[in-house]
Amino acid sequence: MPIFFNVLPPSEALLLLLSHVRPRVQAETLPTVEALDRVTVAPLAAPHPLPTFRRGTMDGYAVRAADTYGATGSLPAFLQVVGEVAMGRPPNVTLSPGQAAIIHTGGALPETADAVVQVENTQPVGDGEIEVVKAVAAGENVIQVGEDVATGEEILPAGHWLRPQDLGGLLALGITEVPVARKPRVALIATGDEVIPPDQEAGPGQVRDINSYTTAAQTLRAGGEPLLYGIIPDDLPALEAAAARAMAEADLLVFSAGSSVSVRDATALVIAGLGEPGILFHGVAIRPGKPTIGAIADGKPAIGLPGNPVSAMNLFDLLVVPTIHRLLDCHNPPQHSVVRARVARNVAATPGREDRVPAKLVRRDGELWAEPVFGKSNLIYTLVHADGTFVVPLDAAGVTAGEWVEVRLF
Amino acid sequence: MPIFFNVLPPSEALLLLLSHVRPRVQAETLPTVEALDRVTVAPLAAPHPLPTFRRGTMDGYAVRAADTYGATGSLPAFLQVVGEVAMGRPPNVTLSPGQAAIIHTGGALPETADAVVQVENTQPVGDGEIEVVKAVAAGENVIQVGEDVATGEEILPAGHWLRPQDLGGLLALGITEVPVARKPRVALIATGDEVIPPDQEAGPGQVRDINSYTTAAQTLRAGGEPLLYGIIPDDLPALEAAAARAMAEADLLVFSAGSSVSVRDATALVIAGLGEPGILFHGVAIRPGKPTIGAIADGKPAIGLPGNPVSAMNLFDLLVVPTIHRLLDCHNPPQHSVVRARVARNVAATPGREDRVPAKLVRRDGELWAEPVFGKSNLIYTLVHADGTFVVPLDAAGVTAGEWVEVRLF
After folding, report:
1. Which of A197, B57, B106, B377 is the most exposed place for a label (fewest CB within 10 A)?
2. Is A204 within 8 Å of chain B by CB?
């Protein structure tokens, strides 16, 4: 079977892949207080209005606004204080014309009151009377019932990544459980005869597996559940068996291929044989990370990442993270922070290939500079020493020192 | 005891608070694979070089570079192929002058080889011989021992927030356990007679506690451990008892005050009485969130947040998140993503106060616009409907439609 080599620009590779990915959203119900960074599966509606009662927004006096009309410092309105609104209780006061009640921020407005006069605009004058030196309009300093949300209003759409304030919004309405998407299960399969587990002593010619763990961490941050399949030797039946298990257990398969030609070929063969339509592209015009495979097998995305750890992280970020978000059907996934900085030195690049350059951010003379971290692209410490990466676009021959770039922190 | 009111601009309030916060870093040792988003407590050094052996970076032939000098397409060098480097094994070939060995990307260079010729620059010519059509320099296509990191080199400083690539860097060196800072314990104390737990039916005048949960989520994101103390009624001894417990158990105390004057006064009294030097500021020139207290009590920061949920989140973000990072002694904490956008309509503001305006991001004609989400500042759904906030600076009277602002996503 021929391994076709069909190299696409990064944005096209991503679009082609995503065009085949259907959301696979199974719901599970979680306590709202544990649903941070999970994704809703259905729109949620308000079971009751918020607030449920008319609330004052100032410390002062609940009044009938009409009683204050025309009031000024030189011609104040005089009102009789007939009570105080207790916090957390139904209002126990009713105002007749010419009457007021003490109210605290957040307190419930008495039934016949329709505004709050700030305490600063009043003056006690003895005998339980106050003078009001500034008129208020009806509704002033009051939150109306349903002003935050009305009953039945959609409060969150489906596919919403839950942030701290979203949990607050749900709990404010007494929604203490929320159906969220099960985390997409991402099978992480490492291959290569030279690769050993990190807790083993590396003999000559051996390197420790780090791709399983860097991509597991990336999976967690993207909202997925990593399933580690360990290190599969450079052996077609063993790879096929691991892939078959992953097809049964996971929503998304990620291979990080060993370095040798034979294991790369074996990985490509296995990916091609997983199901229809098979391989969509084999090669992405990006550095580092060119020898990457994108495939769809019977509806499941399968990505073959290069073995070198920087390429693997780079292409995971480009292709797998958006795929996880698509599986979650999420419209507002978390984004990398982006910082504008000036490039500290010239960076050469090859047109026709997008370069992702690791860079350290340095503040100099009040300006932010991106110092490229040079080093062969497969050295993990180029990424450890970097704060992020910037892109030299496909059609550029490089970036000149002093040019502005956007550094994506990661 | 007088409650002094000492309002500071936001940046000054933060600086004053942080100037009193000492890192409180207790170490705990975690498996490296579980240390994502934790913070190192000491610099870490490489126990051995990386890589540990000379590795080829191309598929091709390991050679003695001198044998290829002067080789061109018209005048190739001829080399005898004497073996193949097996992946993951010590090199089992030694090259004499005029000899080459097949090598795969990542393979170990034979001892007397010093370069790799890419397969594309070779041609088999029969009898186990190849011609080399392009000379290589010594060291070409080779990663030297220690080129990624040298033995003893500092690989991570103290106070480093561990990202996916950092875990990879540690595991590549066989560092499978890492000492990290224990998460700072953040006591979250809600107060107010009108506040009830979220799973209860809210009667007239009652509102559900959401500050405990929004700030718990913010604590988690900032790398802290939230300790929820529940809702304390508006009662000085009860507040004092909760605060004493928090002083004993937590590294940082956060009160979210109820709405009424009396509970706000009681909270301020309790904070003032926790220890020396006491309250640093009482009031921050920011909207929403002005009535905020910053204090230090016997070395522990104590923050009194306003009761309204938007203010509470806003000031938590401004003051508490950096305090958690300072307690962790972290130099690279995660940052909010920032997006530049044009303001979709005029926003008025009061000079002398920093405004944080919730906004929704909308793409229009290829440009990103920030639509302010209007609403009274204590409505939690203004934040739920927003993608982030932008700042109207202290000295500005507003922002004009079309102006560029930086929207912090949260």
Report:
1. A197
2. yes
